[in-house]
Specification:
The protein is built from 11 helices and 2 strands; from the N terminus they run αααααααβααααβ. The protein is mainly α. The radius of gyration is 34 Å and the shape is rod-shaped.
Amino acid sequence: MAAAALDLAWESSPMTAPGPYALPANEKKQLATHRVGRAATYLWALSPVLTCGYAAPIMLAIALARRRDNLVLAALIVHSALLTSSCLVMGTFADQTPLWGDVLIYSSWFLAAIGGTAQLLVIRPLVFPAGARPEVPVAQLSNAEVLDRARKLRDQARRTAEADPMLAKRLAIGRPDLPRQFDDGGLVDVNHAPLHILTSLPGVTERSARQIQEWVERSGPFASLGEVMLVIEISPTFEHHLREYCVFIP
C-alpha cells in the first residue's frame, strides 16, 4: 500500500508531462460553432457602415426584439426617420436636389452608418451575451491507468536511450528542466540533470545530489543505479523507486 502511494504521488508530480489531448470531433465542432457565432455578432454590429446606414434600422429592430430597451427604441425611430426622409427627398427631387436636400441625405447616411455602428457595437454584448465557452474535457483516468500509462512511457523512453543516446539527448529524455515535446513518463537523467531535478527523486537529498554531480565531473557518467547506490549516500529503501525513474545516458 505504501509503495503504491509513493508511486501515485510521484506520477502526480509536475515532472511527468501529460501527453497531448486530441479533441473529439464533436468538441471541435462546438468550438468552431462558438467562434463563428461570435464573429457573426460583430458582422451584425458593422452592417450599418457596410450598407451606408440602411441596415441600421433593421439591426436595431433585431436588438429591440432580443432585448427591450427605450434607448434602442429611440435610436430605431430616429434612424428610421432620417433614412425615410432622405429617401423621400431623393424620390421627390430626383437629379435636381436642392442644397438642403443634399445635406439631409448625406447627414442621414453618415449618422445611420457611423452612429448606428457605434451604438450596435456598444450594445452587442447585451444583445448577444457571451454564452459559456465549450469546455475542453479532461480525460478522467483511474489511478491504475495513470500509473500504467506513465510506466509504459518510461519503458519506451529507456529503450530509446539505450538504442540511441544521442537521440535521447535531443529528445531531452530525463531532462524536465529543458523545453521538450517528448513525454518520458517522469524519467530523470542522473548523469546530466541539474541539482533541483536530482533532489526531486525519491530519497535523493541535496547532499546526495551534489555527490552525484561531483562524481560525474570527476569520474565520468554512471552506467547503472547499482553504481550510484555503491558510492552515493542514498538509503537502500528508495532503490526500488529510483530504479523506476532513473535513466543513465552517457
